[in-house]
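Worked example 3 (structure in, sequence out).
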């Protein structure tokens, strides 16, 4: 199963960092948060990634190029203009990097990588959030529910759109805006999706969190996997400092590898 990561936004709420690099490359413990997200999935056996780039996309490509070289022994055959890598300490990842456009919305980015998913079920998440979620349990839940889409529901106060869950808290009935004192569940990303979800996306200007998810909820095709453990996105510089502090103290709950 492939993992799609949305990594093309401007990151305007953390402009202190994103002015010089895309938000997914902002570092926690010396590695980009994008790397941390990929390590979470890899710890559960998912090693094929499709990265949806946009803003400062070349920096993401350069990161993976340099990462591969830095963690490998290498032979440079200058006479034949060849380079041979001798992998010594590198993850068994297959990373497909797709430029989905600077102005493309989240749904549009997903639509643009459709052909790279081979018509199979896939995971989707954002390039700025980490969690100690059990990906294996999430996948099992999705298969058991048998719907087109599963999102991970987490609790987080303030500023996010809340979910209205069914009485069993296994399916999403609707989305609504929430106030700062609302302690309800929110969309924490970490989706599992079937190929037919692409039929809910019109084009580049489609926001995944609006019409597609709202329509899937109305159609009874959106399940909610409740995660009561650690979840934290990196929306602001304060969030980044929080995550860095946890890492430096050796108390990073998302470090499941």
């Amino acid at each position: 199963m492939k993992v799609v990561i949305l990594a093309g936004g401007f990151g305007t709420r953390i402009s202190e960092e994103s002015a010089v690099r895309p938000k997914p490359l902002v570092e926690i413990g010396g590695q980009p948060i994008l790397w941390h997200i990929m390590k979470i999935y890899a710890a559960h056996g998912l090693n094929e990634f499709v990265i949806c780039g946009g803003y400062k996309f070349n920096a993401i490509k350069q990161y993976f190029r340099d990462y591969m070289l830095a963690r490998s022994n290498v032979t440079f055959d200058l006479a034949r203009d060849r380079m041979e890598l001798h992998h010594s300490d590198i993850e068994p990842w297959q990373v497909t990097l797709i430029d989905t456009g600077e102005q493309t919305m989240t749904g549009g980015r997903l639509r643009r990588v459709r052909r790279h998913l081979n018509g199979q079920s896939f995971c989707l998440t954002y390039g700025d959030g980490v969690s100690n979620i059990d990906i294996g349990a999430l996948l099992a839940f999705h298969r058991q529910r048998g719907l087109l889409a599963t999102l991970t529901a987490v609790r987080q106060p303030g500023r996010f759109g809340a979910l209205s869950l069914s009485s069993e808290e296994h399916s999403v009935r609707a989305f609504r805006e929430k106030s700062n004192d609302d302690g309800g569940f929110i969309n924490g990303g970490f989706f599992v999706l079937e190929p037919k979800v692409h039929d809910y996306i019109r084009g580049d200007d489609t926001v995944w969190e609006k019409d597609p998810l709202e329509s899937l909820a109305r159609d009874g095709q959106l399940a909610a996997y409740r995660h009561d453990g650690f979840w934290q996105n990196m929306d602001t510089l304060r969030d980044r400092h929080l995550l860095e502090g946890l890492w430096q103290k050796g108390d990073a709950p998302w470090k499941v590898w």
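Notes: Helices lie at 15-18, 33-42, 57-70, 106-112, 135-145, 211-218, 237-248. The chain is about 25% helix and 30% strand.
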